[in-house]
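Troubleshooting entry. The earlier prediction with manganese (II) ion gave an output that would not parse, so I re-checked the input for stray whitespace and re-submitted. Clean input:
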Amino acid sequence: MTQTDAPTEEGVKQALRAQRIETPSWAYANSGTRFRVFPQEGVPRNPYEKIADAATVHRLTGVAPTVALHIPWDQVDDYAALAKHATDLGVALGTINSNVFQDPDYMLGSVTNPDPRVRRKATDHLLTCVDIMDATGSRDLKLWFSDGTNYPGQDDIRARQDRLAAALREVHGRLGPNQRMLLEYKLFEPAFYTTDVPDWGTAYAHCLELGPKAQVVIDTGHHAPGTNIEFIVAFLLRAGKLGAFDFNSRFYADDDLMVGSADPFQLFRIMHEIVRGDALRPEAGIAFMLDQCHNIEPKIPAIIRSVLNVQEATAKALLVDAAALAAAQQAGDVLGANAVLMDAYNTDVRPLLAELRAEMGLDPDPIAAYARSGYFERIRAERADGQQAGWGA
Ligand code: LRH
Ligand code: MN
């Protein structure tokens, strides 16, 4: 289906069938806010059980075949065995996420820390994550740095950028031929004055400086209120520097709520730019990941709902009549052009998706299928004892 053809139902279904959404291991485990992490029944106790839950989401949705890991939250002795476990369950290990934001040594920064010993330790962790990618067969290393300062004068803003660039360069040099590093930005939190990678421009500039294996990640919860995220998507796609999304949604800050729950129209506008940029198909190389925390809601149904929300926004974006849109834009027909987009957005795509799932041999309603499956009752009993997994904050 190209940009000029009017969308066909079969074309839309074909694109949706090929969609790939990666779920995050940490969303299956306990998470919360600085005020409280509320444990839930049936929560996984180790990476093996997190992967089993991710496999359940894939079994019911058909479009979530990979699970992202977070190190050390998903540390194991044998990553090849973990990868085999995933394969046996019909999924694969995906993006490896580094963690240089919890160790006490990183209070004043990790790779940007004034202390070279701490910088070395942080960079070594990033390199260890690449070793893990070699063992799991993962393509992507995702780098998010909580690094920043809380008070003016606390540290030299420019010197911290030099330190960051040096660490990133070392990691970029270590990557194998088919491996990438994905640099994530975030406006603030946990730092409240400067953040060393605060916005897409900073991430983009570092990735340009690094080279072809460095791409930008857009976490949809990491922007100042009112930021036009789809502009950033269009810009980075055009520049060939968009590597991935961390999908979630928010009403205020980095709320990490279910993607599409707070602002489904924004998710549609983002997916419209993806479809317009012919970047939905897996070969385009964009990793569509969820990065969420289900603090009060049951975790597996929340992730299934999130996958469905991405599918719905994508189906609507695929229904945009590109030819009519281009014609109206060309003619300066402001209302006409807007109407083309709103017609697609206001289309109820749920029947089409239910039909597609049936054609894929899946239950048209994955959430109801999960409730009927008895999976929750089983894991609740199996995992009644032992230490539940969490993010150890
Ligand atoms: C930081 C972030 C990052 C992850 C973490 C779990 O806010 O978005 O992507 O490492 O959440
Ligand atoms: Mn993220």
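This one parsed fine. Residues 26, 97, 144, 184, 186, 219, 246, 254, 291 surround 6-deoxy-beta-L-fructofuranose (ligand 1) (CB under 6 Å).
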